[in-house]
Amino acid sequence: MLLVKQCPVLACSSQLRIVPFRSGPVAPKLPWQSACMPGCCRPPALLNTAKHSQLLSRPLSLCAQASSSDAPHAASGPEPLPELLRVATAAAQEGAKVISAAVDQPRKITMKGATDLVTETDRLSEEAILGVISSAYPDHAVLGEEGGVSGNTQSEYLWVVDPIDGTTNFAHSYPSFAVSVGVLHRGTPIVGCVVEFLGGPHAWGTRTYTAHKGGGAFCNGHPIRTSTNPEVTRSLLVTGFGYDHGLAWQSNMELFKELTDVSQGVRRLGAAAVDLCHVALGVVDATWEYQLKPWDVTGGCVILLEAGGKLTTMDGQPYSVFSRSMLASNGPLHPQLLQYTQPKTEALLRQGFDLSEWFVPR
């Protein structure tokens, strides 16, 4: 049985049912878990090692372009990155078609919590995306926000899918929201595609961000790079707030106020995949957030890093898509932003707040 620590969203691959985490000794990682990204500033001094799964020190760089062939792929040997990206892009575009057909129609909404919601379109989009992935790579594992884990959980490849990142925005017909598809190989993100919805009611459009490891980042086929701004006082920033209004939410509210005072503005769009792509595009300089899930970030972090950006946790630790805090920047701005985010995050850890990785013990 697959379980996620304090995150009852992953499902048993054979039964596809959601299960809660049960405490116990941490089991070995699955083949696709979990690698750090570059940008580590210091060893994990304040981490509670009893609560943290061991980080693997693999490098991460990532990103874009494609080839063809619709036949299922062989299970042996490394998968070609351009082909993985071609399938990821096709899958994300299938999900986007589902959203496009529904975006100006009445919503069928179900509440997952007091304020956290899901629509029928989320489920239909995920079904369309998974259909493309499973047809091309039936031997790979898949993690979807709505459906949990499916496929071959012993595979070194894990596809991570958010059928609508920014569901609340979608439910209100407010841009921004996106489809996000990413691929991990032994825990390292290697491929990402994000289809962002733009405009508004009866005037919707999209732009597609793509990247694979070592290939650069692209928006609608055009190369993109992060900004080069090194000064917080000249920066435009983005953050996000989750549905749990606890200690991390309070800390981020304080960061929001502090950085609003010293920057040219802090935006809150409500879709982490879009936030990461906007940093990659160079229209904002950085984004940060607590308690993001793997499906929120896997596609976008590939794009961000291939566009020249930098990723760490909010206290400067190596970042993986299973981390519970994220600071993503253009690179030059990173040290200044850590002066704000690191003290807040270390204070949370001293208070016993759990910022260990989301992980899947067996």
Describe the structure.
The protein has about 350 residues and is of the alpha+beta class. The longest helix has 22 residues, at about 80-100. About 30% of the residues lie in helices and about 20% in strands. Helix 4 (about 245-260) runs antiparallel to helix 7.
Compute the average pLDDT.
81
How far apart are the first and last residues' alpha carbons, in Å?
6 Å
Model regions low in confidence, pLDDT < 50 over at least 5 residues: 1-28, 38-71
What is the topology, as strand order, of the major beta sheet? Answer: 4-3-5-6-7-8-9-10
Beta-strand residue fraction = 15-25%
Please give the structural blueprint.
Layout: H1 81-102, E1 109-111, E2 117-119, H2 120-136, E3 141-144, E4 148-151, E5 157-165, H3 167-171, E6 177-185, E7 188-198, E8 205-212, E9 217-219, E10 222-223, E11 237-239, H4 247-262, E12 266-267, H5 272-281, E13 286-290, H6 294-306, E14 310-312, E15 325-329, H7 334-350
Parallel strand pairs: 3-5, 11-12, 11-13
Antiparallel strand pairs: 1-2, 3-4, 5-6, 6-7, 7-8, 8-9, 9-10, 13-15, 14-15
